[in-house]
Amino acid sequence: MEGSDFKKSNCNRKLIGARYYNVPVTTNGDQSHLASTSGSPRDSVGHGTHTASIAAGVQVPNASYYGLAQGTAREAHRQLGLHATRHAWMLVALPSEHFTLRQMGVMVICSAGNDGPNPYTIVNTAPWIFTVAASNIDRDFQSNIILGNGRTFTVLIGFCHQFLQSHSFKTYPLVFGKDAAGINTPVSEARNCYPGSLDQKKVVGKIVFVTKKLVVADTKAKGLILIDEAEKGVPFDSGIFPFTEVGNIAGLQILKYINSTQKPTATILPTVVVPQYRPAPAVAFFSSRGPAQLTENILKPDIMAPGVAVLAAIAPKNETGTVPNGKKPSKFSIKSGTSMACPHVTGTAAFIKSVHRQWTTSMIKSALMTTATIYNNMKMPLTDNSNHFANPHEVGVGEINPLKALNPGLVFETKIENYLEFLCYYGYPEKNIRFMSNTKFNCPKISIEELISNINYPSISISKLNRRQPAKAIKRTVTNVGALNSTYIAKVQAPVGLTVSVLPEKLVFAEGVRRVSFQVSFYGKEARSGYNFGSITWFDGQHSVRTVFSVNVE
């Protein structure tokens, strides 16, 4: 589909199709980009290009963002062809639309959202959606600060994109935002750098020290130091404007220095790469958390993938303040978000499909979920950005492991009928389900929400387990995609007080037997209140098929 700045000749063996849709905008969000996107499939923002290249870009040696993160850019699946669709509005697809795609055999993979770290912030949580959380990687960035008293702060998990040459390391006066407040400006606004809150005469030529970064680059300041304990580990692209982040402890020490002298000064050193960063992977601060508001009887997110400081291709843009002097616009950018995590899973799913062409989308999803990594590069359980052990409402079943997913041993096939049953259990009217699915499906006679836990999903979630009632049984069916005549033995890992039993404890796949069902019972009389997490793992000597469970005991 040609547009004002996009021709058919722009398509190739990688970009195999492109369309755009111009629909009147009904949201109240930022619409400043629409003028350049209307009437063309061209990506003017860069988000789509960046994510597409993660999933299916070509291999590029010596890729970097002005020397940062230099190496060979590798895509999730280089032989994958892309069909790009450009929407000139904020698109929010309905779960019913996603279901239709899934019914057509299309794997629907979506971001978990960037509204973490609070619970119940996750989006895209229908069971037919593969919901992806974001993690960091074992590469970080460092932008050190040298104070006038000689104190150096090694900001190991801070970040700034400044590209000053070695002879340009300059020391500038340092000012706290509240001390540079404009006339009649509340101190709280100046401390947080609200637009118009700073007196430009008080910040020109200085490095500004603030507790929130709202606006400062346009004040003719020489740099910014931000206190942000929560997001200090999330890279932020500030172009050529010197910028770095510190945590609360370092922030208090810098503030103490400012208050100790009449002429505080500071130097922000250029960004350098920190290789082999630990711990990684760890769930990103911004990654939205479960449980899902739609239903707590499906565990969400499903899985986690790299989404912090991801280097990927963009369309070069020569915008003021983004390109270092004497440099050309970069063909790569470093971005963070669950939007960056999602295409890692997309490309990996396509990679698995290219090897196992007869596998359904639910088999691929199951293979990725049951083989996910649950340990970091310190051989410790996955953590969050505060170095606390992460739970499945943050990381799902764990970090994606593409190669291991090629040979999962067993898979959970979630069929269209299971999804239709989900709609029945959720309370959708039968006539609406028939209309949406274009079938004559009949809902089970007993259709209550707690039965959602019984749909054949690769993980298990129970929203309410009454400790005063008998054990609750959950059924699952697995399909053998490994060796014939194999036997799997169950191993349960459960928290203290929660009784979890599996029947049978042994799954035997004799000749001609491809599918076997089992039952998991949960009894919570002695369990602690709230969510209890654990797993059931099936072993055959070669494969480990891990099913994570999440049980809310009341």
Automatic annotation (TrEMBL):
Database matches in Pfam families: fn3_6, Peptidase_S8
Gene Ontology, cellular component aspect: extracellular region
Ranges for region Disordered: 29-49
GO molecular function: serine-type endopeptidase activity
Entry keyword set: Hydrolase, Protease, Serine protease, Signal
PROSITE patterns: SUBTILASE, SUBTILASE_SER
Chief localization: secreted
Places the protein is found: Secreted
Gene3D superfamilies the record matches: 2.60.40.2310, 3.50.30.30, Peptidase S8/S53 domain
Listed Polar residues bias regions: 29-41
Span of domain Subtilisin-like protease fibronectin type-III: 454-551
GO biological process: proteolysis
InterPro entries: Peptidase_S8/S53_dom (IPR000209), Peptidase_S8/S53_dom_sf (IPR036852), Peptidase_S8_Ser-AS (IPR023828), Peptidase_S8_subtilisin-rel (IPR015500), SBT (IPR045051), Subtilisin-like_FN3 (IPR041469)
Domain Peptidase S8/S53: 103-398
Record keyword Protease present: yes
Family: Belongs to the peptidase S8 family.
Name of the protein: Subtilisin-like protease SBT5.3
